Amino acid sequence: MSENQNPRTDASNEVTVAPEAGNAVVHADRFPDPGVPEHKHRLTDTDPKAAKRAERTVTLLFVLSILGTVGSIVAYVLVPPDGTTAGVRLSTLLIGLGLALSLLGIGVAGIHWAKTLMGDREFVQERHTLATQGEARETAIRDMNEGLEDSGVIGRRGVLKGAFFGALALFPLAIAVPLIGSVGGDWNISKFKHTMWQRGTRLAIDPSGRPIKAADVTVGSVFHVVPETTEEFRETHEWITEKSKAVVLMVRLNPEDLRTDQSPEGETWSHEGIVAYSKICTHVGCPVALYEQQTHHLLCPCHQSTFDIADSAKVVFGPANRRLPQLPITVDDEGYLVAQDDFAEPIGPSFWERLK
Amino acid sequence: MSTATHDTQREAPAKPTTTVGKAADYLDQRTSIGVAVKEFARKVFPDHWSFMLGEIALFSFVVLIISGFFLTMFFEPSMALTRYEGEHPASMHGELMSVAFASTLDMSFEVRGGLLMRQIHHWSALIFMASIVVHMMRVFFTGAFRKPREINWIVGLLLMILGLAAGFTGYSLPDDVLSGNGLRITDGVVKSIPLVGSFMSYMIFGGEFPGHHIVPRLFTLHIFVVPGILLALIALHLFLMVLQKHTQYPGGGRTDKNVVGYPALPVYVAKMTGNFFLVFGVLALMGATMSINNVWNYGPFDPSPVSAGAQPDWYMLFLEGSLRLMPGQGTEWVIFGYTLPLNILIPAVVVPGILFTFLFVYPFVEAKVTGDDREHHVLDRPRNKPARTGLGVAFLTAFIILALAGSNDLIATHFHLSINAITWVFRILFFVGPVFAYAITRRICLGLQRKDRELVLHGHESGRIVRFANGEYIEVHTPLDEQERWLRVNYEAPAPLEIAPKTDARGVKRKGYSSDKRWQRLSRFFYEDRVEPVTPAELEAAHSHGEHDQLEDGESGHQAVEAGAGATSREH
Amino acid sequence: MKALAARRHHRLAPVVLLLLALLTTGGIYAALAPSTANAETVSTADIETGKKLFQANCATCHGANAEGTDGVPSLVGVGAAAVDFQVSTGRMPMQMSGPQAQAKPRQFGDEDTAALAAYVASLGAGPAIPTDDQVDAAQGDAANGMALFRTNCAMCHNAVGAGGALSEGKFAPSLWETSERNIYQAMLTGPQSMPVFNDANITPDEKRDIVAFLVEQREGSAGGNALGSLGPVSEGLWAFAIGLGLLIGAAVWIGAKSS
């Protein structure tokens, strides 16, 4: 940086360039550079009254800023949010407006000051080629070579070099292996393939947890369903993780609307027009919850994959590729809806080992 | 104060007399700070509004740190489950939720000024990303990425990607339904990756989604890792900017060998500081008056609910749109029993991969097809590089179409359209739109260049009509002054690459010929059509050509006759 | 309310609630089926007026005896609640066909609506118009309403009821202007694309909780202007329009030379 051969144009000897031809080489077929345009004086440079006015404006803005700060503190003390929507809104508004005024006052004042009262002559500074030039470059190359020479490994001691790079490359493993090994919990990815639905698990309403009688599911109804479980379990992390896989959407269709009451595998998984499908989209896993009663279409609000509930939840639009897995259901002795079994396939988005 | 410091430097041996001078002297004797002051105090910075866009990004980052610090005082990054005891909002009272969500409610409803800071923080994040993107557009369209600034372009891109990471990790911290579904989508995308996807999902969540590790992990990333790297890269970004000195717009006296502008002290420092307060002030105003991400509307994370309008923050919308547009039918392949979901991989990995690769390689490709190894410090007017401008607009078109596709449900409700129809239109537009955008933009650029030639050769229309004795009417044209003219002639219109012949003198086939040939083809794509700047000779010719129109009163003899596009090179 | 909320998580709570729900439904039905909330007494005269109104305004599509025609649903058994919802929101009579019938200024006054409802209710048993008590937000538990709303309703109507898109040009309307009674009726009867949420699925008390939650949303956002409560897309739009707009404006001012 300090070694260039050009005489340095430092702070003390800048030249303001008068409008004249620039220093570019003038070609016969190029116009000459007209140079920096002539400096025009501002009103505040020529009119002392204008300068005084600007000074007053800037001062006033700083005072406004101070008032803003004070106002913000007053609002903090005098207008406590009482927790209600309107109270929090008022407190937020007043503290915020005070802060904004305090900041904008300084900002506008500073810039107005700079624009009207600080020097506005443009300066020209030389640029220097970024590449190191001349002797400095020679020295750098020589020093570099000498340094490498001194290391005594250029072109020889291959084994040593190999060991050196090998050691450097390997040492992070001593940190990475324990980290990566532990960060994934038990790494048991086969959990993707099972949910907590079992033979006989009752279907319950989400979020209340009431079990559902088949008779209560009227035509055109939609039920958001979770497996019935204990109140204690419903307050654990395990529940949230299990629920993430187990949520189901259940509707009852007119028997004549239901294209088939058989699963694609030929089993009867529905009960008198009541069908239950996994609510987890086979695209990337959003809850597909938007059921249109008239068309029997189930739409995902995240990416608009659309499934036809009347036709085994096959995809009719959007980015999903596979139908939603169906939960095989039946009724128990008391008339409650229960699962026949877990889903026959992994629920949710596709993954590499899905079919293994 | 500035002069005092300054004088201390110059008259080092003399004893300082003022307080500031004494303090400066004290410091200098222990740090030789004078060297730095000498280097920077009167360093010249060119002034232009578009150079402030990067400043907006920098300052919103500072606001992010200030407001973020405030939030960390009250936020608890824990997923332990708790019942919310607060009375407000009434819709949350007694609900089971994570401590993270409860502390977010608490800081919003109980901490005075807490909601204000949350909102300022979130608005700052949106403005941070928005100003980064607009700043990048300025850099791209003016060619500020050219040598020697390619490295800084890469640093800037990394900053943008880190900004995305910072936004993503912060967005998910309150553990609400909206961001939870966002995480779930992320999980789905991660799982789709061949071979390692399932394990990566386990790695991120410490087990199955959602588990109870993700919020503390994201918190560490959000307040430590990502901002740490961001800070380091911002420092590098600014260091390179100062080292290489700022670029400047073309104009009289501005060359690749100089920099014309205002000295850092006082003007530039004052304006910059003022701008910081303006940015902070505007963000405070937004935080005070406009609500953002009211997480209590969505409620604590629960895997069953989802709400209409389930979208990420705007800078992630392009990914959301990409996922929405991809048709799913027949795009999931099963190979030897292993599942390859291309309906996820293409929109979520391949499409952003292509977009980012374009940004990363563009400066190097352009340098190569231009055959250019010189330093550039004077910016291009976008019209003077039609192919670059066209490509940039095509890129933006693709990005905007994806972002709109990510908002298709809101477009449907607000314009009463069918969401299915909108999706189909965007599917087609994603391919057709950028092509049209490129062609139209390039046309417009070439047209503007010709217009510039016209102006230089024949001057401005003055609106004054004059009738000659022979009955002929002409409009008097006033010539451009030399500054106006210089702006329009001071550019280069590079020609396509020339390459060495296929065989050398002895008829032996040259190695690397086919590669050269490919580059030449690309170079033709860039520079086949070009409009050369007017030369003095052409201007001379235009004047003499129009001599018979010269007015008696001698007031400048330039006329509009016909468009002399003589030097326009090959046009199809 | 707090004590009730705590007890709601008791193991027997579902059973108790279910019993309560059944009792309430039955009780209310028994008590109110003959006399709906808005028509003090349903007389044969009302039914006659309703029949006339029906035949003049509805029969073209729904058939002379409300038995439905091709593509138009039968009204036998839809109940008074469905009629009151459709007519009092102006959805029926429909003016033109489209993806869905939209709310518009109502064409029948309270009395005519009541008469129509009475006539349709006389054709077959169906849900009755809810009482003022059933839709009284002050008696509802907004927190429970929130939990129910986000599971059952938010995917279509948006987290706070701002509305959202369905497929093929259909949409779920905003609920901010909808009356409490209409909200309740919509859940009960499942108009058009909307599924039915019968009293076994969402009990009358729970329905009132949902109404309470939606009424609470009318207070707006604690953070200031709610920006339509549309979520991140509108926030992004405003960030560009207001935030970046102001800041670029400021940058132009900073960069401009002072005169």
UniProtKB/TrEMBL annotation, chain A:
Its main location: membrane. This is Cytochrome bc1 complex Rieske iron-sulfur subunit. It is found in: Cell membrane. Keywords: 2Fe-2S, Cell membrane, Disulfide bond, Electron transport, Iron, Iron-sulfur, Membrane, Metal-binding, Oxidoreductase, Respiratory chain, Transmembrane, Transmembrane helix, Transport. The keyword Chloroplast does not apply. InterPro entries: QcrA_N, Rieske_2Fe-2S, Rieske_2Fe-2S_sf, Rieske_Fe-S_prot, Rieske_Fe-S_prot_C. Iron-sulfur subunit of the cytochrome bc1 complex, an essential component of the respiratory electron transport chain required for ATP synthesis. The bc1 complex catalyzes the oxidation of menaquinol and the reduction of cytochrome c in the respiratory chain. The bc1 complex operates through a Q-cycle mechanism that couples electron transfer to generation of the proton gradient that drives ATP synthesis. Its cofactor is [2Fe-2S] cluster.
UniProtKB/TrEMBL annotation, chain B:
It is found in: Cell membrane. Keywords: Cell membrane, Electron transport, Heme, Iron, Membrane, Metal-binding, Respiratory chain, Translocase, Transmembrane, Transmembrane helix, Transport. Gene3D superfamilies: Cytochrome Bc1 Complex, Chain C (1.20.810.10). One of its GO terms (cellular component) is plasma membrane. Its main location: membrane. It catalyses: a quinol + 2 Fe(III)-[cytochrome c](out) = a quinone + 2 Fe(II)-[cytochrome c](out) + 2 H(+)(out). Residues 1-20, 536-572 are annotated as: Disordered. Residues 23-250 form the Cytochrome b/b6 N-terminal region profile domain. SUPFAM superfamilies: Transmembrane di-heme cytochromes (SSF81342). It is a multi-pass membrane protein. The chain crosses the membrane at residues 51-75, 120-141, 153-173, 219-243, 276-296, 344-365, 386-405, 417-441. It comes from Promicromonospora thailandica. GO terms for biological process: respiratory electron transport chain. Its EC number is 7.1.1.8. Residues 540-551 have a biased composition (Basic and acidic residues). It comes from the Bacteria. The keyword Zinc does not apply. It is an enzyme of class 7 (translocase). This is Cytochrome bc1 complex cytochrome b subunit. GO terms for molecular function: metal ion binding; oxidoreductase activity; quinol-cytochrome-c reductase activity. Residues 251-447 form the Cytochrome b/b6 C-terminal region profile domain. PROSITE patterns: CYTB_CTER, CYTB_NTER.
From TrEMBL, chain C:
Its EC number is 7.1.1.8. Keywords: Cell membrane, Electron transport, Heme, Iron, Membrane, Metal-binding, Repeat, Respiratory chain, Signal, Translocase, Transmembrane, Transmembrane helix, Transport. One of its GO terms (cellular component) is plasma membrane. It holds the Pfam family Cytochrom_C. It catalyses: a quinol + 2 Fe(III)-[cytochrome c](out) = a quinone + 2 Fe(II)-[cytochrome c](out) + 2 H(+)(out). It is an enzyme of class 7 (translocase). One of its GO terms (molecular function) is iron ion binding. The chain crosses the membrane at residues 237-256. Heme c 2 binds at C153, C156, H157. It is a multi-pass membrane protein. Residues 45-124, 140-218 form the Cytochrome c domain. It comes from the Bacteria. The keyword Iron applies. Binds 2 heme c groups covalently per subunit. It is found in: Cell membrane. Heme c 1 binds at C58, C61, H62. Residues 1-30 form the signal peptide. The cytochrome bc1 complex is composed of a cytochrome b (QcrB), the Rieske iron-sulfur protein (QcrA) and a diheme cytochrome c (QcrC) subunit. This is Cytochrome bc1 complex cytochrome c subunit. It comes from Promicromonospora thailandica.
